[in-house]
Amino acid sequence: QDTALRRRKLERDGRILRLENADKPDDPFILFNLGSIAQELGQTEEAVTFLGRSLALSNPRDSIVRKLYALLAQCHRRLGQDGLALAACRKGREFYPDDIELLFQEGIILRALGDRPGARSCWSDLLRPRPAAHFASLDTGLSGYKTRHNLAKLELEEGNLAEAEAQWRAALAEQPGFMPALVGLGDVQLRGQRWDDLERTAQALAA
């Protein structure tokens, strides 16, 4: 939670990994970790170089590969390269069609590109029951409240207030303190001039 401490630890880890990379060049796992650290530090172009090299040296079934595609998609999005980001998601899904992180990222990219039906399809897939997740570092909100929040925003943009409210209420049932959902719910209530409901939502936001 301490961002300055987190940055110092990442920079320390990066120095250690660079020494390892000098001793064992082209080790895909070392390159993966260098790319991951560079991405978190905002060194996006350098991250793409490390991650792309790691991917080129990895077998598609290696444990790091699905995360490599997801990180590459995030980096390309940050660089404004939506086409490359979408290509990374779709290439990764050739090997891992139901991967949670890739589906979530693809939905975000498609929405940015104006493909709302495509985004809705990706995010709806995330909310369907699926087998136990693979062993990995994964944000569990991607298959729940965070995806519901994105679907709610789509519904709101299309004027479907009841559907947007249903998604935000489901998100809040899962994560009561999720502020973006409370803000969205308040927006729905404001548009519907539901002042008593809006007052309760405002109180929840204040709390």
Backbone CA Rg: 20 Å
Largest sheet: none
Strand tally is 0
Q: Shape, please? A: elongated
* Helical/strand content category: mainly alpha
Distance between the ends = 21 Å
Strand content: under 5%
What value does the average pLDDT take?
Answer: 92
Number of helices: 11
User: What share of residues is helical?
Assistant: over 70%
Low-confidence stretches: none
H/E order of the elements? HHHHHHHHHHH
Key words describing this protein structure:
single chain; 207 residues; mainly alpha
Describe the structure.
With 207 residues, the chain is mainly alpha-helical. The protein has eleven helices and no strands. It has helices at 3-23, 28-40, 44-56, 65-78, 82-95, 100-112, 116-126, 145-157, 161-174, 179-191, 195-206. The longest helix has 21 residues, at 3-23. The model has no long low-confidence stretch (mean pLDDT 92).
Summarize the structure.
Helix content is 73%, strand content 0%.
Secondary structure: elements and pairs:
Layout: H1 3-23, H2 28-40, H3 44-56, H4 65-78, H5 82-95, H6 100-112, H7 116-126, H8 145-157, H9 161-174, H10 179-191, H11 195-206
Helix pairs in contact: 1-2, 2-3, 3-4, 4-5, 4-6, 5-6, 6-7, 7-8, 8-9, 8-10, 9-10, 10-11
